[in-house]
Amino acid sequence: MTQEGKNIIVQHLTRRFGDFTAVDDLTFGVERGEVFGFLGANGAGKTTAIRMLCGLLKPTSGRAEVAGYDVARRPEQVKRRIGYMSQRFSLYDDLTVGENLQLFGTIYGLRRAALRERTEEMYRKLEMEPLKNQLVGGLPPGWKQKIALSAAMLHRPEVLFLDEPTGGVDPLGRRRFWELILDAADEGTTILVTTHYLDEALYCNRTLIMADGQMKALDKPRTLMREYGARDMDDLFGKLTRSTAVPDTTAKEGEA
Ligand SMILES: Nc1ncnc2c1ncn2[C@@H]1O[C@H](COP(=O)(O)OP(=O)(O)OP(=O)(O)O)[C@@H](O)[C@H]1O
């Protein structure tokens, strides 16, 4: 594909399950180092879209390219270049922090020396050295979440997919977690993150709002709020997910 600088390119991506269309004709691109939010209620199609972009589920029609590779034709190349963290944190409760990281590093094909170096780096960065011999099962959700993020990033992926990574974490923990996400983006990682905490959209460079598998809007969150005359993200979301939503042109007047 020809769109320079884009790390994710999605064109008319569609997935049906029988007669039901879970993802309906999505088209967008994500820049390298961008934090791109997927906002939608339960069942909007976010996870289905992510599974296609990770090369885990074949599109019914349309196409997508991630880190330079077609997700349907070259899923193995895609998987090597991405990190994925699901809402369930994907960790093994009965292994220690160190064992979990070792396991994920091995799955991602890291050699022993690289794995050791990156694990040490993660311990330092997240100040979790004292936890390395503790079983993951006994840790609070905020820590599990940071460890799951570390596991998904051990192999330094170009693109990171985070599917509701902050579910079940308290507000302070969510804020700290977002600092980690933004740090990773500053270092050049492209991030696609889904959430149904609407306030989290404000951390994203751009947000795609989804309902019933379809894209209802896509832009910088504050631009969208202005465009639709919304007080906050909740208000915007309500306006956009009602089928009659139209941009509020009067709200735009007089604004820069
Ligand atoms: N394998 C499947 N077979 C049939 N229907 C499916 C399948 N996977 C997902 N769906 C349906 O597709 C729709 C979108 O689901 P999806 O999990 O993508 O939504 P979501 O936006 O991620 O929601 P959530 O926040 O609950 O995870 C839902 O109605 C779901 O029931």
Automatic annotation (TrEMBL):
Gene3D superfamilies, per database record: P-loop containing nucleotide triphosphate hydrolases
Entry keyword 4Fe-4S: no
Keyword Methyltransferase annotated: no
PROSITE patterns for this protein: ABC_TRANSPORTER_2 (PS50893)
InterPro entries, sorted: AAA+_ATPase, ABC_transporter-like_ATP-bd, P-loop_NTPase
GO MF annotation list: ATP binding; ATP hydrolysis activity
SMART domains for this protein: AAA (SM00382)
Domain ABC transporter, first and last residues per copy: 8-237
Domain of life where this protein originates: Bacteria
Residue spans crossing the bilayer: none
Keywords: ATP-binding, Nucleotide-binding
Protein's UniProt name: Uncharacterized ABC transporter ATP-binding protein YbhF
Species of provenance: Rikenella microfusus
Gene: ybhF_2
